[in-house]
UniProtKB/TrEMBL annotation:
Keyword Lyase: yes
Name of the protein this chain belongs to: Uncharacterized protein
Family assignment from sequence similarity: Belongs to the DapA family.
Keyword annotations: Lyase
Organism lineage string: Eukaryota, Fungi, Dikarya, Ascomycota, Saccharomycotina
GO MF: 4-hydroxy-tetrahydrodipicolinate synthase activity
InterPro entries named in the record: Aldolase_TIM, DapA-like
Transmembrane segments annotated in the record for this chain: none
Active site: 146, 175
SUPFAM superfamilies on file: Aldolase (SSF51569)
Keyword Lyase found: yes
Organism per entry: Tortispora caseinolytica NRRL Y-17796
Pfam family for this entry, one: DHDPS
Amino-acid positions noted as binding pyruvate in the UniProt annotation, renumbered to this chain: 215
Amino acid sequence: MAPSTLPRGIYPPVVSFFKDDKDETLDTETLKKHVVRMVRAGCAGVVVQGSNGEAVHLTRDERKANVKAAREAFDDAGFKNAVLIAGCGVQSVHETVIFCKDAAEAGAEYAMVLPPHYYKAWVPLNDIVQYFRDVADESPIPIIIYNFPAPVGGIDLDSDTLTALAQHPNIAGTKLTCGNVGKASRLAQIPGFSVLGGGADLQTPFLFVGAVGTIPGIANILPSLCVQAFKAFESGDYKRCMELQANLAESDWCVIKSLVAGTKYALSKYYGYGGYGRRPIARPDDRIKQLFGESFDKFIALEQQAFKETEVKP
């Protein structure tokens, strides 16, 4: 049973991995290695098949396989307390509930759910609110509402809407990739409702207003740097925290400008695994390679130093 409030910490939204073959076959063995690297760096857990995880490129069976692989990897490596969040949101209550049940059966403790958006022009806000309530009624695991306007036609749930949804006993929190710090501050006042930032560039501001942690894409590449800044905040060393936050904001900008293709290129370059996204995500071009050129090397050096401070052994 998942705790009603998420443990504080960093939750990398891990990429999915595919073999470089004609069918772009799912590679769960590489995912296992990757998620263990995240928790060894001090992360509280991971999110599988979010935006970075190419959820929209995965079949139902592949989603289940990813969740199962991540849970097995944590357990086999001795990290049984690592939290596993699975992206489950699709367009109907019916299918979203199926994905939530699949995720729970495969070992996830939480389901992260986007608003439905295909019929945005005909579905009013009240119906979107009811969608979340209906999913939460039927999901065997708690729901984290994923507020990310960009991929859902601009739907941006405000704090009044999220406050109303937070009253549901099976809605545990929200990920605010909208980046609205004021919204985060208002929602963080709700007892038992977990607010998570959606990027490393706003990690510290979100923590200052009461967020329990962050789900930052850059943590795929620099997990220890994210954890190091989080620990500095938790210890009250705000001067150091702000210095570390500057590194997060600068490095995260490279990921923001390159998304999945850039993250996977950086993983391949610096860690020897990563591969490519599924089509239509293109192979990395010269622009992406330049983003992760010599100027990014300094962050890898800082990551290696930070790992010595943040490493967790089972």
